[in-house]
Every structure is written in structure tokens, then in C-alpha cells.
Design goal:
Order of helices and strands: EHEHHHEEHEHEHEHEHHHH
CATH superfamily: P-loop containing nucleotide triphosphate hydrolases
Low-confidence stretches: 1-22, 290-300
Number of strands: 8
Distance between the termini: 42 Å
Number of domains: 1
Largest sheet: 8 strands, mixed
Number of helices: 12
CATH architecture: 3-Layer(aba) Sandwich
CATH topology: Rossmann fold
Strand order of the largest sheet: 3-4-2-5-1-6-7-8
CATH class: Alpha Beta
Mean pLDDT: 83
Helix content: 40-55%
Shape: globular
Length: 300
Amino acid sequence: MGNAVTIGIPVKDGSERDAGDKCAPAPRVIAVSSGKGGVGKTNCVINLAIAFARMDRKVLLLDADLGLGNVDVLLGLDSEYNIGHLLRGEKTIEEVMVKGPSDVMIIPASGGEQEFTRLAAHERHALSSHIEGLKASVDVMLIDTGSGISDNVLFFNMAAQEIIIVVSPDPASAADAYSLMAALLKKHGERRFKLLVNAVRSKKEGFAVYKRVLFGVERRLSPFRGLNVSIDYIGSVLRDDSVGKAAGQRKAVVDAFPGSKASRCYLEAARTLSEMPVSKDLKGGLQFLWRRMLSANCNS
């Protein structure tokens, strides 16, 4: 089982191209998930998005925690429309998107709308059509999925090239992360994951949590050992009172307290991630999220 703390050959985000493409790099599509709620996943997504933007990437953040998403709320944004309006065909994707810190473009979730907690096939198709028609060029697309192993969570994870799983030092967090990885492996054959450990007291503790997750995965997924499951460590975020203070201001910590311990951790994790090579294998029902957006870049 792959467990390297891999920092691959430095490349620009999305440097992998479709065969024969000679125009624009493919957008990098990254799903961020957690096995359980309460680990700070959405805060991680928001801060990683801004960190990428600070690296001169054009970033799109899709709040895919449908029914319970709150990216716009956490950032104090006035979002009149959301993904629900998009799926019902009432608004275009450009009308739904709102601009966040560092020019990160955000597609808000449909907070409180139970009808979207399990997307039907036609709704998935509608979402694919809307994103396929996105006019803006994108370097990095981050998908903030829900937590757990619901159909929506698995669907959005399989829509991405890369999957980051956020865990905390809480043993229950690791146990639920095993369940998420097992579900993605058993149902969809997904074998590559990345791990971000949140709210640790030290970098040493963060790496120890990573090693504990590796051990648990090897034990729980032993029937699949021959499939060469890999879990790359992209870093940890130190526990920091600045995170709570920033939330009180409805800001990301990298904006409100750029010199804080947590902010430095997010920037370091984004740099580590940007230096990892991107798989060019197509997968899942939303392959368009990077292949079709690449085509749009070529034609713009």
C-alpha cells in the first residue's frame, strides 16, 4: 500500500494535458471530503482555495454539501442564488456564482433544500451541462463535498481527479475516514487518496495521525491489498485560536490573520499539493469537470 509523503516533480497545477492538446493546461479538480462532520473540512476547503488564489491560480469553489452547505455564510457573502436555482434551470452558472476573497469564484450550495440531498440522474446531467458551459477559465476547482458516505458524497468524489480526506486527531474521525475510503474503493475502484490532518497540537502529532490512518486502512482494507491503495500526506493544520476569531469575523483565517500558525499551514499544504503531479486518467460520471473545461480554454 502506498504511504509515501510524496512531493512529486514540481509542476504547475493541471499540467497534465489530453493527448494532442497544445493550448491550455487542464483545470485541476479536487474533492475535499471527510468521513464525519466536525473536523473543520469546509474551513480547510475555503482556506486552501484562497491559498491557491494567492499562488496566481484562478480558483472555482463548488459547495457540494447540498442541503447543508455554508461556504458563503462562513465568508459573509451575499449570495442571492445557489446551486438549486441552477439545477432547476432558473439561473445560469454565471448568475449563481459569487466572488469571494482573492477573487475565488464560489457556487453556493442550496442550504436547507432537502430535494437536493440526493441528486437524480437528470440533476447530475444538468449540473454537468452547466459546468461544461462555464465561460470563465479555471486553473483549480475545489469541491467541498458533504461528510459521510451518501450517494452525493461518493458522486462528487468520483467527479474529481484528486480526493483529499480531512481528519482530526479524534479516533472517530479516522474510523469514519476508513469507511469513506472503503466505500469509494468497493463501489468505484478508487485507490488514490490524499490526507490533510486538521487541528493538531504539533506537526509531529499530525504525522502520527497520518501513520495511524495508514495502519487502520491496511488492516480494514486488507482484502483489497493487491489493488495498491495509496494515501499521500499533504500536511497538517495546527490548532490555532485565530481560526475561531476569523470565523467570528466571517473571514478565512488566511485573510484575517495571514501570519497565524494555521494560515502558514494552509499555504504550506497548498504548495505541497501544487507540486504533486496530477493523474490524467479519466474517471467517474463528471469527467467533463476537467476535460470539457480544458476544451473551453482552448476555444477562448
